[in-house]
Amino acid sequence: MNATSIEPARPASEHLVSLSHHSYLIRSVSGSDELALFDMFARSSPEDLRLRCLGMIKDFPRLAAARLAHCDRGREIALVAVDGEGAAPGEIVGVAHLIEEPTEPGCAEFDILVRTDVKGHGVGFQLMKDVLARARERRLTKIVGFIAGENHAMLLMTSELGFVRDHAEMGTVRVTAML
Ligand SMILES: CC(C)(COP(=O)(O)OP(=O)(O)OC[C@H]1O[C@@H](n2cnc3c(N)ncnc32)[C@H](O)[C@@H]1OP(=O)(O)O)[C@@H](O)C(=O)NCCC(=O)NCCS
Prior knowledge:
The chain is an alpha+beta fold. It has one domain (15-178): Gcn5-related N-acetyltransferase (GNAT) (Aminopeptidase). Helix content is 28%, strand content 32%. Strands 1-2-3-4-5-6-8-7 form an eight-stranded mixed beta sheet, with helices on both faces. Helix 4 (123-137) links the parallel strand 5 (107-114) and strand 6 (142-148). The longest helix is centred in the C-terminal third of the chain and has 15 residues, at 123-137. The protein starts with 14 loop residues before the first strand and ends with a strand. The relative contact order is 0.14. The structure holds coenzyme A. Residues 48, 51-52, 111-114, 119-125, 145, 147, 151, 153-154, 156-157, 160 line the site of coenzyme A (COA). Coenzyme A binds next to helix 2, strand 5, helix 4, strand 6 and helix 5.
């Protein structure tokens, strides 16, 4: 038998990306990610958590981590970016999430968070591209997001990804992309 080691095949749903000379694995969330998600939320700034959920929820890191790790895969898509190298390989550093609207078939709302110290390296953009690709595979036709008016980074990113601003109310902008 040939002694050459063969890397186990990576599931088609996972892929490695190199961003700012650092590698990340993008994959679907799993039930065993709860602790790593908690760690990511706990290490993000209160301001970033506020921008993610448009309001501070008591005990947000614990609740959001449990909620995402055990999301309903029938009507939600959650992708995580996992640090593939460096001081702490295996840490989750970002999560993008879609949840289908119960009242509007084909439509889903997104939310996204990249751990504060990892922002600005392209992880958020990559997660958004991947979650939109998954949405297309699932035959979703419309993705919406609610973004704080002062969240220029996210407004710019969504516009680069083809979202248009179609509504603004109480300091929050709704952006929509037709797939
Ligand atoms: C908004 C957020 C998700 C962005 O994530 P990020 O990883 O910091 O963003 P990225 O580094 O991927 O992208 C940032 C920039 O690069 C651009 N960009 C990144 N990759 C790109 C690419 N391949 N092609 C074109 N543009 C790209 C983005 O438009 C943006 O521009 P800027 O840095 O010049 O302002 C992150 O800041 C965050 O988690 N914020 C708090 C939570 C939040 O605001 N969520 C949104 C509401 S749900």
